[in-house]
Design goal:
The protein is of the alpha/beta class. The protein has helices at about 15-30, 45-50, 70-75, 105, 140-160, 175-190, 210-215, 235-240; strands at about 5-10, 30-35, 55-60, 85-90, 110-120, 165-170, 195-200, 220, 225-230, 245-250, 250-255. It is built from 8 helices and 11 strands. The strands form 3 sheets. It has a 6-stranded parallel beta sheet with strand order 2-1-3-4-5-6, with helices on both faces. The structure holds flavin mononucleotide.
Length: about 280
């Protein structure tokens, strides 16, 4: 195996970190690896990269045991391939049941050979006021412990890949049924949840960062007013990275008594890294 390519979506940096950790470990082992944010790349360019790769990976955060909407769109755009050795992973705070397997529903018709699948535990990015009963943290000490455990798990997973030992977490009836328990209502109510992000006008400094960072083009400024198109994909990037915490969810501003919104897994994480720029 000489070349590995990973395609991922990351709302707030966790899946970016896992993808970059894969790249670092593959490189250590003499495999040329690259990771691509799906916000920077279209299906046909990804198809060309895939055709030149010996191994392909797809990664995403679990959203209610489902794929983020943008990942579904990316999978639909991909050209069919023949017999490509493939791994899938999801990042999750606590539990997804079959969070990685669900990608198979979208990839199967493209004929990827999914030999490996894994779930990686990362900090929760769910920090909106309406979920105040769910804990999250920006404590760097706590987060670095989680990252160390996850890196160990990534190394174990890569070991299986390099030894050609198929391993597919969550590919069984029980995991599928437990994932569906969460996914079925999530899919059912998804459209109703797509217009819950807005902003607190009195706090907003009109830096337009939220609109620039939004992966779905849901947020746009008309003059000094922020407008929404009702096509939010619930990634929470705008909510987490607004410099003055002016973004609201279900009309509730962030409760700063809980600390800042989730700021990503490492302090170096900058969400601008995930966006297309002129050089891409
Ligand atoms: C809308 C939404 C739904 C989520 N659902 C789950 C879930 O079902 N189970 C879980 O363990 N984590 C869940 N999470 C947490 C994220 O999957 C987790 O923090 C992930 O690592 C975030 O990755 P990112 O920073 O790359 O976006 C959810 C997060 C969001 C925003």
């Amino acid at each position: 195996m000489k070349k590995a390519s990973i395609f991922y979506f990351s709302g707030t940096g966790n899946t970016w970190w896992v993808s970059e950790t894969f790249v670092r470990i593959f490189n250590e082992k003499g495999i040329t690896a690259s990771a691509y944010s799906v916000e920077k790349i279209n299906g046909s360019r990804a198809g060309r990269i895939i055709s030149e790769s010996d191994l392909v990976g797809f990664g995403f955060p679990t959203h209610g045991s489902d794929l983020p909407f943008i990942m579904k769109e990316f999978f639909q755009e991909l050209p069919p391939v023949k017999n490509k050795r493939t791994f899938i992973f999801c990042t999750q705070w606590m539990w997804s049941g079959d969070g990685a397997r669900v990608a198979e529903e979208f990839l199967d018709e493209k004929q990827f050979n999914i030999f490996w699948a894994e779930h990686f535990f990362m900090p929760s990015n769910v920090c909106v006021s309406v979920t105040r009963f769910l804990p999250y943290t920006n404590d760097r000490m706590k987060i670095s412990k989680t990252l160390a455990k996850t890196e160990k798990r990534i190394r174990g997973f890569i070991h299986k890949i390099m030894n050609e030992r198929p391993f597919r977490r969550g590919f069984n009836r029980i995991s599928e049924a437990s994932g569906a328990f969460q996914r079925v209502p999530f899919r059912r109510f998804f459209e109703r949840l797509r217009d819950d992000i807005f902003y607190e006008k009195s706090l907003c400094i009109r830096c337009r960062k939220c609109a620039r960072l939004c992966p779905s083009g849901n947020l746009i400024f008309e003059g000094k007013e922020l407008k929404t198109k009702g096509i939010c994909i619930l990634c929470l990037r705008c909510y987490s990275f607004c410099p003055v915490s002016a973004i609201t969810y279900m009309n509730k501003p962030h409760n700063l008594k809980r600390g800042e919104p989730y700021k990503g897994p490492v302090k170096e994480f900058n969400p601008e890294l995930l966006l297309a720029d002129d050089s891409d």
